[in-house]
Structures are given as structure tokens and as C-alpha cells.
Amino acid sequence: MIITNKFNVPAPLVTLASKEYYSKGESSYSVTEIMAPPKIKRLREQYNDKIESDVADMLWSMLGSALHVVMERGETPGFLSEERLFAEVDGITISGAIDLQQETDNGVVIIDYKFTSAWAVMQEKKEWEEQLNIYKWLVENVKKKKVVGLQICALVRDFSRHETKEGYPNAPIHMVDIPMWDAVFTEGFIKGRLDMHREAKMAQDFGEELQDCSPTERWMTETKYAVKRDGRKTAIRVLDDKEEARILADKEKGYVEVRPGEPKRCTGNFCGVAQWCKQYQGEINE
Ligand code: SF4
């Protein structure tokens, strides 16, 4: 990856951004890679020497790395920081680096730190559930210890004390309990993900098309229907349901403006490979 410095920030920040703190050790797949869409992983590997990222856009990932270093200094009896576990699944070595393990009388509680937004804390985050349950599977299988809890320690970067929305975190550090899966289900999940990655790699090696990213993987927002009337700047209402919008438009003697859903991961190039992705580029050119 090429690190640029478009905003002329001090050189040590560029050095920090260039040093990849995160390592997957000797494994073929880290937990994060297992969960990533196979198409993104394949394209990122293929175009690794062309992908550009500006140091200013890497603020939160740098702070994430800094947090790991700081946490190593906060050694506390009964807590184990930063342990990387390895396991073999169907002949493939996988690994996961666990931020924190709390030893209790009943078993281990796994805790993962996340710099995140208040909005993210208020949503159901499937990827947090997947990640922590793979960690649970690793602890149970490699360390032969019972896991009794999974938690995200959310460091809410845009926290406001004045916000009163339901479900809004009540402090800038907010603990989120994550549902636990049973080991059989998790192992099936890991194997399924590895199969998808293996198939994508084979397709790439044979010059075949990669399987498309799904709407969820593309962070697709929902299509909305704005009821509008000539002579009025703003919409009367914006609805999720087309038929409901049509009925309201008839009543208001207006019309319906369709606001199509947007694949945010593609349009914002959050995958880093949008310019080489045939799926997305094909849609833009249509
Ligand atoms: S541009 Fe969109 S569809 Fe293409 S790899 Fe990225 S997320 Fe997937």
C-alpha cells in the first residue's frame, strides 16, 4: 500500500501509519480476513502495490494501534492483554489476536476494544458478533477454557452528553454484551467462510470472475420514496414503502421521487479497491 501525505502532517505520523502494527503471524487468515468479503480480500492482494491511502484518513486506525500499545502497559491481575491464538481448520491456519481476556471463577470473558461512533453502538453489529464468537471458539479449542461472556468495549468518538435518543450510550466508554454462539455453529461458520475464500482464490487463479459482493457487504442503504409537490422545495414525507408513498402523493396532488439505495462501501471506496472492481465500475458505466 502507498501511504500519501496530502495534508503535510508531521513525518513521524507517516512513519507510524506505514508501520503495520497488526500482524497475522504465521497464519493464512486472520479473524478479520475470514470475515471480510472474499472479493475485497482478493482485489486488495492483487492491487496491494497500487492502493493509496492518505495518512490523514488513517487517524482512527492509528489511534486503534496506539491503544493496543497503551493497553499493554495497563497490566492488571486477572486480565490477559493481547494474546494471539492459532488453530488449524480444514488444513488452513487461522489466527485471532484477542484484546483482553478476563479470568473469572466461572470462565473467561472476552473483551474487544473498538473506536466507534454512537450510531454504531445503537445498531445491531453482526460483524462484532461474528468476530467475538470466533475468538470464543479459539479460546475454547486452543486453551480448552470455558468462555462465559463476550463484550465490546466501545470508545465512542463522537459522544455527546446532550444526546437523549433511546439507546444512546450513557458514557464515552460503553460496554456492549454480545450474544454467544455454540461451538458447532461457530465451526460451521468458520468453515463456510474459508470455503468462500478458497473458491474466490481459485477463481482468481484461473482468471474467472470473482463472486459479487452482496448488498450487505456493500453497506447498501435502503431505497426511499420522497413525496413531493411542484413549488415546494422539501419533500412532504420520505417513506420506505413505494405504495404508501404513491397513495400519499395522490392525496397531496404531488408525485413520488425515488431515491435509490446507495452501496456506501463502494461509493466511498471504503474497500480501497473500487477503481478495480468490475462489479461497481460496471454499474457506474451503465
Ligand atoms: S467496490 Fe463495492 S462491490 Fe466492489 S469490491 Fe468494493 S465493496 Fe465490493
Would you write up a description of this structure?
The chain is of the alpha/beta class. Helix content is 37%, strand content 24%. The protein contains ten helices and eleven strands. Strands 2, 4, 5, 6, 7 and 8 form a six-stranded mixed sheet that branches. A three-stranded antiparallel sheet has the order 10-9-11, covered by helices on one side. The longest helix has 23 residues, at 183-205. The model has no long low-confidence stretch (mean pLDDT 93). It binds iron/sulfur cluster. Iron/sulfur cluster is lined by residues 37, 39-40, 43, 213, 218, 263, 265-266, 271, 273-274, 277, 279-280. Residues 37, 39-40, 43, 213, 218, 263, 265-266, 271, 273-274, 277, 279-280 line the site of iron/sulfur cluster (SF4).
What distinguishing features does this structure have?
alpha/beta; 11 strands; 37% helix; binds iron/sulfur cluster; 6-stranded mixed beta sheet; 3-stranded antiparallel beta sheet; 24% strand; 286 residues
Strand content: 15-25%
Approximate shape: globular
Based on helices, strands and strand pairing, what is the structural class?
A: alpha/beta
The end-to-end distance, rounded to whole angstroms, is 30 Å
Radius of gyration from CA coordinates: 22 Å
Helical residue percent? 25-40%
Number of strands: 11
Tell me the series of helices and strands, N- to C-terminal. Answer: EHEHHEHEEEHHEEHEEHEHH
Characterize the main sheet. Answer: 6 strands, mixed
Total helical elements: 10
Q: Can you give the mean pLDDT?
A: 93
Low-confidence stretches: none
| Distinct ligand kinds | iron/sulfur cluster
